[in-house]
Amino acid sequence: MNINLAVLSLDSPVFHTYAIAACLMILKLMLQPWMTVARMMKVKGGYRSPEDAKKTPLNPEPRAGQLDVDEYVDRSRRMNLNDLESIPGFLAAGFLFVLAGPPVVFAQIVIWTFVVARAAHFVAYVTAQVHDVRATCWTFSSLAVLTMVIYTLIKLL
User: What CATH number does domain 5-156 carry, 3.60.21.10, 3.40.50.150, 1.20.120.550, 3.30.470.20?
Assistant: First the structure.
């Protein structure tokens, strides 16, 4: 398969779509830990390492239990771990998908399905929805990535 490097131009509608989606997903991936930090500061706990419970300018009044698991903080950590399981695969698969030159509308549907599903997954997780709801959102995002990979493999073979 010959690769037309014009597909990597922001003038390419498929690459443009991917670039926007990738930026949004990278922002999600990088901002989620800040949510965890904000939650740790709010509850003054949920810390992980023994040295985190020592007196410092950011922890002027250490107390027993600061290293205990705090569900409010830990929920944000779990959301971050889920992002780390899903978003890097999208970034890699999406880039290869762009190189495969899919039809614009097909590419936009698949790429935005991933983004919308991840946004829905975030809302479901942050509002403590049951596993079935989160799993449904995850399934749509996973199927979008698998679609990109299978399309790319078919074009390569």
Answer: 1.20.120.550
